[in-house]
Specification:
The complex is a heterotrimer.
Chain A (H helix, E strand, L loop, with lengths): L3 E12 L2 E13 L4 E5 L6 H9 L7 E10 L2 E2 L5 H7 L4 E4 L13 H12 L4 H14 L5 H4 L9 H13 L5 E5 L7 H18 L2 E6 L2 H7 L2 E6 L2 E7 H6 L4 H8 L49 E4 L2 E3 L8
Parallel strand pairs in A: 3-8, 3-9, 6-7, 7-8
Antiparallel strand pairs in A: 1-2, 1-4, 4-5, 9-10, 10-12, 11-12
Chain B lengths: L13 H10 L2 H18 L1 H4 L31 H36 L1 H16 L2 H12 L3 H27 L3 H8 L4 H38 L10 H8 L7 H29 L8
Helix pairs in contact in B: 2-4, 2-11, 4-5, 4-7, 4-9, 4-11, 5-7, 6-7, 7-9, 9-10, 9-11, 10-11
Chain C lengths: L2 E12 L14 E12 L3 E5 L6 H8 L7 E6 L2 E2 L5 H8 L2 E4 L13 H11 L6 H11 L16 H13 L5 E5 L7 H18 L2 E6 L2 H7 L2 E6 L2 E7 H6 L4 H9 L43 H5 L5 E2 L5 E2 L4 H4 L1
Parallel strand pairs in C: 3-8, 3-9, 6-7, 7-8
Antiparallel strand pairs in C: 1-2, 1-4, 4-5, 9-10, 10-12, 11-12
The chains are: A alpha/beta, B mainly alpha, C alpha/beta.
Chain lengths: 322, 291, 327
């Protein structure tokens, strides 16, 4: 039994050029305690997937065209906002990329954590306070009881992201969605936050959907990986399988084009061209115009996502099942 | 090696895209119609006004609107239609002159203050002092010194509003001078004048245009206020404020005298504000609805 | 080989707050605080460090985009730190910069041709300007029809090519690349890195390549300098720096880079030299060695005395009291 099931999800945005699909036919499962990495570049639809699950799509610009998100016996796409509010927090929580703007500058961090607790549980102020302090200690804020009165501007970027994690986790969610949680941070702080995320997963037992554009972050943290390109899933695999034997040419390109610290190359292997804009996607396979393996039939019809190796799916016509 | 770049999509130059969006903006179009009507009437005043606006005809006094006198007559029997048309001409003249003064002086002062930070403090403190004065009081003070004529009203309103325009230009310039493309021009050896002319002012134009359309409305309103208070253009010059001031005494018996210039004023200001809102929606990306 | 660019003990201090009627003057923000380095003709010096370490400021000081507070900058042997007016404009021909943000780096109201041609116009070489712009565009891999388009019609990677064309059209000797790929999608980054390398070979350029991505810096650089809080703490040939880092900060930085394969994961404390804590504020620098607040090897000496750059004949310089002991 999976904790979260996404089936055939399609989300569209209304723009000046008509409706465009940001996320198209996405299906995946999330198991208890699992870290699912979603990797993709700008415009891949990875963040929209997260917002769709959270029910935080900007209205009325965006809407879910079809599909289901099953969580705790309910389809989240059909829930009214009032019910959804009770799921956000204790059910599914989220942390965002920008730790500068995700906290309200006029309230102390203690107030913001306690507000989250008391929105979901009838706790006394005293009990909420001690729970908030305990959570701050868990996310590695030293002398937490005195820091409760601090305002966001008194904290560094890394500390703010820790506070965001505390707010997200204080109601013990079963799923945490982390959307580029370390992208705005320096590399030494990124390492701290990723370690912290995995420690908290072990301690609290929640499942994590980690969204990133960085293959290194995936290599450090994920159990299973979805690779997204131009709104669709290109490949899905367990992390070792993905890095050992990537199937989709796009995944291969992503792994190749990042210079590594351990080996030297004369030239980087670049993926030619740019990502297609949402309203100008090519017919057929969306990666075909940039793909070194593309043949004529790649230009007709979307390639289906097939299990080519057990547990390892890819959407590419050029790869034969083994 | 040339990268296999995808085809560049042909898009319109920035200003053409903006024009296209403006023509789809309903409230902007309504504003354009309202303001356009007043502007056309003002331009054509000498040809479409049926009577001399200052011609006294006591036998016709206090005639309500009818076939002979479209808007009725006032206490001296002057045609209100003619007076309102000529008033529109004056309002437009004053409004556009004030806008012109502001566009030139406000931009010059704002750009100087924002770009040359050494003189910023001095310029902006003078600015603050001028802005701290209530606009109408300041205008009264200026006309008191210069004397009440149309030219002096224009100068007074120019002095009153230039600090506001300067402040808006200055804040855009401060943001723009830190842009990387300005730094690139510095690195390429460009002088101050070139940087201001090619890189800063063209990009500061959008918020300025928005501001100027609101300013036009303020200028028209303030001019009417000054005339109404008797410190604007001297009667019998047909300004909307003067007509209303005279009509005030007869408000009960001949309400059209005060109501008609009032409506004209309202139509002009509403039109300009809608125009400004539309321009802001299209030109100011900070307020643009994400699509 | 001779150094093309040489910095001797340069500093850049910003007055954080003037003293006034009601407050005491605050200490200045020391963005760059005594940096000496030289960049050889034809080489790429990588400059890494975390945000706020002053690496971008240092790059702009070297090409005189910002005035120095103190110290000397020599370009091709001549002191350029005090140049003004015409003389300064003349040396600007030889030093250019490529920016990080491909959106803010191009004037939205100018066509690509006007953007790339502007440096030529400024320096009065307008006769064959159109031909040189066309040549430059093809050199950076843009189609000729890009000429009369506006920046908003291009993707991030293409805009970065336009920015590179503008920087190189005057045929400079020295180019500061200020995080030129960090705002781009990963699949496009490699294109730009390759392009910069190709152009270096073709045009004989010298680069200062500023980045926070250690992998990209390692790929493109000959030597690498590491900055921390306004100071260069280590500088060495890239093989030496990445394989045998001597400064604890460099070690921590390298250890923090995510692995490239899940099999290399090293979870748990002590498994890696990850750094604890945050970067202190540049307004309130730690005493002695500025890294001592985060250093796992700190001793009393580090808190009291600032280490100086020392090193052997191999050109590997490090500013650390403990470098010998922990080596």
């Amino acid at each position: 039994m999976s904790l979260l099931e996404v089936r055939d999800l399609t989300t569209v945005f209304r723009t000046g050029r008509g409706e465009v699909t940001a996320v198209e036919d996405i299906s995946f499962d999330l198991a208890e305690g699992e870290v699912l990495g979603i990797v993709g570049e700008s415009g891949s639809g990875k963040s929209v997937t997260a917002l769709t699950i959270m029910g935080l799509l900007p209205r009325p610009t965006a809407r879910i065209r079809s599909g289901a998100i099953r969580f705790g016996g309910e389809d989240l796409t059909r829930l009214p906002e009032s019910r959804m509010q009770r799921i956000r927090g204790p059910g599914i929580a989220m942390v965002f990329q920008e730790p500068m703007t995700s906290l309200n500058p006029v309230f102390s961090i203690g107030d913001q954590i306690m507000e989250t607790i008391r929105a979901h549980e009838p706790l006394s102020p005293r009990a909420a306070f001690s729970r908030a302090v305990a959570m701050l200690e868990k996310v590695g804020i030293a002398s937490a009881a005195t820091r409760m009165a601090d305002y966001p501007h008194q904290l560094s970027g890394g500390q703010r992201q820790r506070v965001m994690l505390a707010i997200a986790l204080v109601c013990r969610p079963r799923v945490l969605i982390a959307d580029e949680p370390t992208t705005a941070l320096d590399v030494t702080i990124q390492a701290q936050i990723l370690d912290l995320l995995l420690d908290l997963r072990d301690e609290l037992g929640m499942a994590i959907i980690l969204i990133t554009h960085n293959m290194g972050v995936i290599a450090e943290t994920a159990d299973r990986v979805l690779v997204m390109y131009a709104g669709r899933i290109a490949e899905e695999a367990p992390v070792a399988g993905l890095f050992d034997a990537p199937l989709h040419p796009y995944t291969n390109g992503l792994l190749e084009c990042v210079p590594s610290l351990t080996e030297d190359r004369a030239r980087l292997v670049a993926i030619p061209g740019t990502l297609p804009e949402a309203h100008r996607r090519p017919p057929g396979c969306r990666y075909a115009p940039r793909c070194p393996l593309a043949a004529a039939d790649c230009g007709h019809g979307l390639p289906p996502l097939r299990a080519l190796v057990p547990g390892h799916r890819a959407a590419c016509l050029r790869i034969a099942p083994s | 090696m040339a990268a296999e770049d995808d085809f560049l999509e042909v898009r319109q130059p920035p200003w053409r895209a903006a024009t296209r969006r403006l023509l789809h903006h309903r409230l902007f179009l309504l504003g354009l119609i309202l303001f356009g009507m007043v502007a056309i009437v003002a331009i054509l005043a000498p040809w479409i006004a049926p009577q001399d606006p200052n011609k006294l005809a006591m036998r016709f006094k206090f005639r309500p609107p009818d076939r002979d006198f479209l808007f009725g007559t006032d206490n001296f029997g002057r045609s209100l239609w003619s007076r309102v048309i000529w008033g529109a001409r004056l309002s437009m003249l004053i409004g556009s002159s004030v806008v012109l003064i502001n566009a030139v002086c406000g931009t010059a002062i704002g750009a100087a203050a924002g770009y040359f930070r050494q003189i910023d403090n001095v310029l902006m403190r003078v600015n603050d002092a001028l802005m701290a004065f209530p606009a109408v009081l300041l205008a009264i003070a200026v006309t008191a010194v210069l004397g009440p004529s149309v030219n002096d009203v224009i100068i007074a309103l120019g002095i009153v509003y230039t600090p506001r325009t300067a402040r808006i230009v200055r804040s855009s310039v401060i943001v723009l001078r830190e842009m990387d493309y300005v730094q690139a021009a510095v690195a390429a050896g460009a002088g101050h004048w070139r940087i201001l002319r090619r890189h800063i002012l063209p990009n500061a134009l959008a918020p300025l245009i928005v501001q100027l359309s609101f300013l036009f409305a303020y200028a028209v309103l303030t001019e009417a206020t000054l005339s109404f208070l008797g410190v604007g253009a001297v009667p019998p010059t047909p300004t909307w404020g003067n007509i209303m001031a005279e009509g005030r005494q007869y408000m009960i018996d001949a309400p059209w005298i005060i109501a008609i210039p009032g409506l004209a004023l309202m139509m002009t200001v509403l039109g300009l504000n809608l125009l400004g809102d539309g321009l802001r929606d299209v030109l100011d990306p900070r307020l643009r609805v994400q699509s | 080989m001779t150094p093309l660019v040489e910095a001797v003990d340069i500093t850049k201090h910003y007055d954080a707050r003037h003293g006034g009627m009601f407050r005491a003057p605050a200490p200045p923000l020391r963005a760059v605080d005594g940096v000496s380095l030289s960049i050889m003709e034809g080489e790429t010096l990588g400059l890494v460090g975390e945000s706020g370490c002053g690496k971008s400021t240092l790059g702009r000081l070297l090409i005189r985009l910002l005035p120095v507070t103190g110290g000397t900058i020599r370009f091709a042997g001549t002191d350029i730190s005090g140049l003004e007016g015409k003389a300064l404009r003349a040396v600007r021909r030889s030093m250019q910069i490529v920016f990080q943000d491909p959106y803010g780096a191009l004037n939205p109201r100018m066509t690509v041709e006007d953007i790339v041609m502007e440096p030529l116009v400024i320096h009065g070489a307008a006769r064959d300007a159109a031909a040189r712009v066309a040549e430059m565009l093809s050199l950076v891999g843009l189609p000729a029809r890009a000429r009369d388009r506006f920046p908003h019609e291009f993707s991030g990677g293409q805009r970065q090519r336009i920015g590179i064309a503008r920087a190189l059209v005057l045929r400079p000797k020295f180019v500061v690349c200020d995080e030129p790929v960090s705002a781009l999608d990963v699949s496009v980054q490699a294109q730009i890195v390759n392009l910069l390398r190709d152009l270096q070979g073709e045009l004989g350029l010298t680069y200062l390549f500023i980045a926070h991505d250690l992998g990209v810096v390692k790929h493109i650089s000959d030597r690498v300098a590491v900055m921390y809080l306004g100071k260069v703490v280590e500088i060495a040939g890239k093989a030496s720096l990445y394989q045998a880092p001597r400064h604890p900060y460099t070690r921590g930085l390298i250890a923090s880079v995510p692995v490239t394969h899940p099999a290399q994961r090293r979870r748990g404390a002590g498994e890696r030299h990850r750094l604890e804590g945050d970067i202190p504020s540049a307004l309130n620098l730690p005493s002695g060695c500025r890294f001592h607040t985060r250093c796992p090897f700190v001793i009393d000496l580090c808190r009291q005395q600032e280490p100086v750059m020392t090193g052997g004949a191999d050109g590997h310089l490090v500013a650390c009291h403990r470098a010998q002991a922990i080596g």
